[in-house]
Amino acid sequence: MTTTRFPGGVHRLPTLGLALTLAIGFAWATAGRPTRTSDDPPGGKVRKLILFDGKGLDGWKKTESFKAGGVKVEDGAIVIEAGGPMSGITSTRTDLPTTDYELSFEAKRMSGDDFFAASTFPVGKSFITLINGGWGGSVTGLSSLNGADASENDTRRFVKYRNGTWYRFRVQVTDDVIRCWIDDKETFAVNYRDQQVKTRLETRSNQPLGFATYRSQGAVRAIEIRMLTAEEIAANNKAAER
Fold first, then answer.
1. Does an H or E element contain 223, and which?
2. C-alpha distances in angstroms, 3 versus 6, 122, 134, 202, 239?
3. Averaged pLDDT, groups of 10, the chain, 242 residues long
4. pTM of the complete model
5. How far is residue 208's CA from residue 92's CA, in Å, rounded to a whole number?
6. What is the full DSSP assignment across 114-179?
7. Domains of the chain, with CATH numbers?
């Protein structure tokens, strides 16, 4: 991303009416609940959200932006076509956590030379974007902290992304720290507690969670959110002290 680029009596109901009422009530009560997975403890809180099943775009919408490219599912991945300049997808879910969670996904740049899966996600009451391959193809970091973009703040890293290659990203968010890995290699850990956390205007339409490309065609798959354990939260807070 460059500086210039870039939801009284008692009355008895008939049996059929009562059943219908109960069914509607149950549907309302369960709407929007996370899908339980094999990783969730029986009877306990849901610990993992599967945000993309590899088959369709349920739970997602095309991000509206100027001359945005198309979005489709192909070979088990969401393909985001190149736009003029940006394209993207945005989650329509209302049950996303805002802290003590891990967002993980796999992404590749199919063509182009800029960011191909910039991921916007919740951080407490705000949001931030992980840029991957911005500013000409290699800058990786958070936009924005204290108004400084990924190319200007302490999270800036230079990563060489090869077109056609899948990369695995993991981002963990706690009340104090945002920590990132690429292909299981820690990229950065930053304490944001006393910093202003905010997205750039260009990725604000990806809130609460979404992905964006810049003059590049990208693909995203295996999108999940997992709640962190107490041990992981403690480890994250220590990681930012190094």
1. strand 216-227
2. 7, 23, 11, 11, 31
3. 38 37 34 42 69 97 91 98 95 96 98 97 97 93 96 95 98 97 96 95 95 97 97 91 74
4. 0.81
5. 8
6. S-S-EEEEEETTEEEEEEEEHHHHTEEEEE-BTTB-TTTSTT-EE--PPTT--EEEEEEE-SSEEE
7. 15-239 (2.60.120.560)
